[in-house]
Task: structure prediction
Amino acid sequence: MSLLSVDVSQNGGIKNVDSSTSVFEMEEFDFSRLPDRPRTLNIERQRSFDERSLAEIPMGLSPHPPSRADNFNRVLDHLDSIFSPSRRSGLNTPRSHFGYEPHPMTAEAWETLRRSLVYFRGRPVGTIAALDNSEEKLNYDQVFVRDFVPSALAFLMNGEPEIVKNFILKTLRLQSWEKKIDRFQLGEGVMPASFKVLHDPVRNTETLIADFGESAIGRVAPVDSGFWWIILLRAYTKSTGDSSLAEMPECQKGMRLILSLCLSEGFDTFPTLLCADGCCMIDRRMGVYGYPIEIQALFFMALRCALVLLKQDAQGKDFIERVMKRLHALSYHMRNYFWLDLKQLNDIYRYKTEEYSHTAVNKFNVMPDSLPEWVFDFMPMHGGYFIGNVGPSKMDFRWFCLGNCIAILSSLATPEQATAIMDLIESRWEELVGDMPLKVCYPAIENHEWRIVTGCDPKNTRWSYHNGGSWPVLLWLLTAACIKTGRPQIARRAIELAEARLSKDGWPEYYDGKLGRYIGKQARRYQTWSISGYLVAKMMLEDPSHLGMVAHEEDKQLKPVLKRSSSWTF
Result:
């Protein structure tokens, strides 16, 4: 099966247009139909997530005790209720609004980010993955949905929302096309992993080519793309105050299609999503098949975003009810069964096996002998994290940065758990941050385990790439989590480490080694999300109100239960 394509001539004609798409039926969408000036959200028509509390569906959950993280919730309450102002930072402003002198890297970063822009029919629609021309391009000249997210946030924070609007609508259009791998048709709601623009000067046309997994390594569809799309739509709405984009029938339908894929009934006994290896940022075989933390955290965050974006019409109300029920089940499951701290580690160490009843403590029949030796030394006295995967007789105890940071931002983590995650990062700074932030996962797998888990993948050798490599793009997620938990000094320390080398090394994609000391052996330079991740981290520290774009405050009525129930009922 070849890649999907759409031929568009310069005079505006479109071939092979799907008759089911109304807005895009005969020509490229006219962006002038959307207002240039932000308008206030219709609060009367659509209440916020926090007003439309999960407690509207009674679940009989008990209250949680206050923690030091609660003190910062008051700040977050304010941040989440405002729209980030369209202030410009970096290249366009010699001095920030808060009196900080911009770092010399900032201007270079903005210049490089703008050179990565991709245009379709004269409009910017995204940023390519990398500007490195020294290596074979492979798919690094494409616009990836997940890679564009930090770029989009940077442009939103800089008061340039148009490119984000263009991207949202362009990927929405690609969603509507038929998607097949060999003879199998993918779900209608699947979003592309990436797309590129091909220029034909002879025919005077531009062609969009999208990849839904049929060209990806392992031929795996991107589960995370749809979640990132919803998260970005909410960030656009929060930043601009313009709800008309999200209220478009096409955007509402796009959200419902994504949610339909995730909320469909099947043989699942857990509220988590069952996924294949390579379905997210870790897009190669790395033993994350099953119920990976990255997907579960993004799923939770996308559900929370959808809850405030869906209209309260007949179709929307049905999905809102389904979303709320899933949020209850998912938050309970993740907070209880994915969470690991010293006490829980000790409990697992003492588990009995082969329990059969509703009163079983070891519900997943995890063998205590399967506990890796490293986790006992890694776990500090004060601290904890969401482990990588939980399934039948399986617990992946590896630390995954993206999933834990998203858990904090979405309030999947309780305030106490969010504080514990930050405590862990501080306690294990050398292991998780080292000389270059930030470990995508910890620890690396090696030797016989590496051969079995990765299939002897030469790119994912120990302490390289996804196998314990250090990824600068994760700076923005760490910074946002630090601000939300009232620990900005952690982010500042990590950013200073990155500033010592990142620009001098040519903005690499990732670093290798236990401490992240070496430029990755196959890392592309001028990696766009390394650049935009740094910019977003800097701008967020300068103006913490930007946090409202990507963070959700804890729902006061969702009272978490941290004690395991004897019943396996959701």
User: Anything to note?
Assistant: The chain is about 40% helix and 10% strand. Confidence is low (pLDDT under 50) at residues 1-69, 80-99, 560-570.
